Amino acid sequence: MRIAIDAMGGDDAPKVVVEGALQAAKEWNDVEIILVGDSVAIEACMTERPANITIQHTTEVIGADDEPVKAVRRKKDSSMVVAGRLVREKKADAMISAGNTGALMTTGLLIVGRIAGIERPALVYIIPTMDGSGVLALDLGANMDATAEHLLQYAIMGSIYRSKVDGIVKPRVALLNVGTEAQKGNELTKTAYPLLEQAPIHFIGNIESRDVLNAQCDVIVCDGFAGNIMLKSLEGAVSALFSTLKQEFTKTLFTKLAAAVLKPGLKAFRKKMDYTEHGAAPLLGIDGLVLKSHGSSNATAIKNAVRQARIAIQSDLVGAISTEISRGK
Amino acid sequence: MRIAIDAMGGDDAPKVVVEGALQAAKEWNDVEIILVGDSVAIEACMTERPANITIQHTTEVIGADDEPVKAVRRKKDSSMVVAGRLVREKKADAMISAGNTGALMTTGLLIVGRIAGIERPALVYIIPTMDGSGVLALDLGANMDATAEHLLQYAIMGSIYRSKVDGIVKPRVALLNVGTEAQKGNELTKTAYPLLEQAPIHFIGNIESRDVLNAQCDVIVCDGFAGNIMLKSLEGAVSALFSTLKQEFTKTLFTKLAAAVLKPGLKAFRKKMDYTEHGAAPLLGIDGLVLKSHGSSNATAIKNAVRQARIAIQSDLVGAISTEISRGK
């Protein structure tokens, strides 16, 4: 299988991206990696030359601050757009990028294209949960004004992803809402609820955002606006709490000593709660595999994204979504 | 000034409600308190008989699980509905209840009534922030499908509340959104943004939910659905983190000793972050003062609600909102 990696995307590109690609190439010899980007810069980072890595030279880069649609339209020879084109032309089975999220969504939509029947692709994250299992949430911002039909498609795509990529036999799908009763919510969730009840998924009803971290489900469905509010609220609360802990820990000599004892456990916990650590985020609904790694990804995160892509390719994730969506039409 | 208190609402009613009323009556002799509820049960809790407390006997109680609209319509002699009627008939300047939130919103709407020109009243909370100042957020669930005009009215009401009740000279009002740029968001926030720019408030633009706890504004405006998702996400994250801390603390003898040193600071912090501790929640847009105390309120919380009501009455909060809204029409 062939995986195209945008070597120029991310805070520490191309260095960590190339490092991650080298690690992945060594680990899985059934994977051929195509590093897309400035060949001189990439060559400079190549400490080894494994046979299953090739370089596709490009002359442009989409920056973190570039306006997504403009950038994708104009920078036709950017590493991200070229990687997308490889997927569309079936020269690659998947692409991975740690670059500009908006531009990657646009690349997915405009360059790779949607699965027939999918109205809106969704941006997905695995939100870390207290037990370490994580819950897949979608949409988290690809589409701000969703309809009930969009939510239904998100639910089907999320359920297939959890089953195919994470091996969960009967993923529990829940609808993000303001209460657990069926009749709760806004017009959107009230209309979506009966659709979800009839969908080919294991729908377990509404979930409130206060229960997300307790892992009571495997997939959370929401519109991009509410999902983004939820994700950033959780993120903000975790970050605020840790900065307070830091203050408490450095107050006196005694608290400093106490902190030294507790730090290892807390550090591990902080890492567990960091959603950027939880692998790459797939763009679901695109007619090809597009994975977004966090901008601050290290080499291990890039290697893990290759692992995810590999499983998704082996299990024919995109084909399974396409089949299920066309069956519902 | 006369303040009606629903003596039968809340987890520990009427005991803690009566205790709180007694404390308030002692502290402010310009306040006349009307305890509304079962006179026998109330009398049994009255350890003193201050001159500025009277009892208004009622025979019914709205329970925590009662269906709000039905309960308010049918239980005409319930303590909550009778307190609302006292406000409508100008026999009380304010009412306070720690009872069923939905029923209290319904009492506000159906018994007390809306301010002329207000389309939807809003449920308000002070979300605790890291610096202790708190940010007033509305709407947090009174109205699930808001229009841009509703958000505009929330902004005006929230700004007046912060200025009148909390003495903030020029309250900073922000719009809850998925990014800080003006053009970000869903149809609702994109339509509301220019309205807020032209409103008689100090509008500072969008705020992301990850920054709410950093107190970058005094008022956050949002629709009831998104607001509820934000509030419960913050609440869920704080609660999940503290249960993890508890686990870390009790792992070994060393961590237990370390925890003992850190506990006082963390306990104070936990209290600071508990939004139920931050006074009563006003229902804004009602033509009379209606305050919701948390169901688990203790006597101090009830006394503090009287303090809030007293300031709001003195500053003519409801009159100020009414004047500003009619000016905009």
From TrEMBL, chains A, B:
Known role: Catalyzes the reversible formation of acyl-phosphate (acyl-PO(4)) from acyl-[acyl-carrier-protein] (acyl-ACP). This enzyme utilizes acyl-ACP as fatty acyl donor, but not acyl-CoA.
EC top class, as a word: transferase
Pathway(s) the chain acts in: Lipid metabolism; phospholipid metabolism
Entry EC no(s): 2.3.1.274
Alphabetical list of Gene3D superfamilies matching this protein: Isopropylmalate Dehydrogenase
Entry superkingdom: Bacteria
Pfam families xrefs: FA_synthesis
Name the record gives this protein: Phosphate acyltransferase
InterPro entries per record: FA_synthesis, Phospholipid_synth_PlsX-like
Family under the similarity heading: Belongs to the PlsX family.
